[in-house]
Design brief:
By secondary structure, the chain is α/β, with parallel strands linked by helices. The protein is about 35% helix and about 15% strand. α6 packs parallel to α7. The protein is globular and about 45 Å long.
Amino acid sequence: MLFDHPDHIDPRSGERRFEYAAGAPTVVFFHGLTATPHQFDALAPMVRMRGRNVLVPRLPRHGYHNRMTTALADLELAELIAAVKLSLAEARALGGPVTVAGFSLGGLLAAYVAQREEVARAVAIAPFLGVRWLPRVVNRSGASVLRHIPDLFLWWDPVKRERHGGEVGYPRYPISAVRKAFVLGAAILEDALVRAPLTPEIVLVTNPYELTCHNGLVHELAERWRARGAAVAERELEGLGPSHDFVTPRRDSRRRARMRERVYPALVEAIVA
């Protein structure tokens, strides 16, 4: 992918391609902030088994050998959008209709594609449009608020710290990356007020017990799209309990089994239906 020196990239964190057949529909997955294409190692093969080519690009400045890298502090929205457009070009070159799906930050990118690009279907899974525990009025000004806060790196898990997340992906994230996600989310919501999305079929998938992302803003985006005549489905995944990441493959056998039985089949149907 663009913007990264190849020597920095952990081979385990590179792009995934699961090819089915030339001319078959193609699904592009976008992973979350600090994650890698590994996030879809369980889900992507299940989608391929439904007759789809699958591309899982690595987002810029992600997937480095050094899990404590500060590279994400330099992440720019222009890089993310360029990476999205490059991935769409690769998918379209395979000849079939294109579906885009993404989780968290990747869900935000899927929402961007739904609004600004013409693909067959967009599936935004727990898209980051704001922080769950902040009021909407604060979320709307999130980018402005964070601009006045030093660009610190925060641990995903303050107890495990650098041990969080296994061997790939980063255990911490910079405030500046969250601010830029706020900027993109606000732009999508504002754009949805004045024009219809270019993608004809959109699915928004949420966990009713979401811990991180603001489901109310996801619903608000759905309503704005519907007001412009778009076909938008909202699907809540039941039985997950309080959590955010219900996509990344788990080491715990019980959680892994629950995801295979409940979560992944529902996501596959949202993507290929």
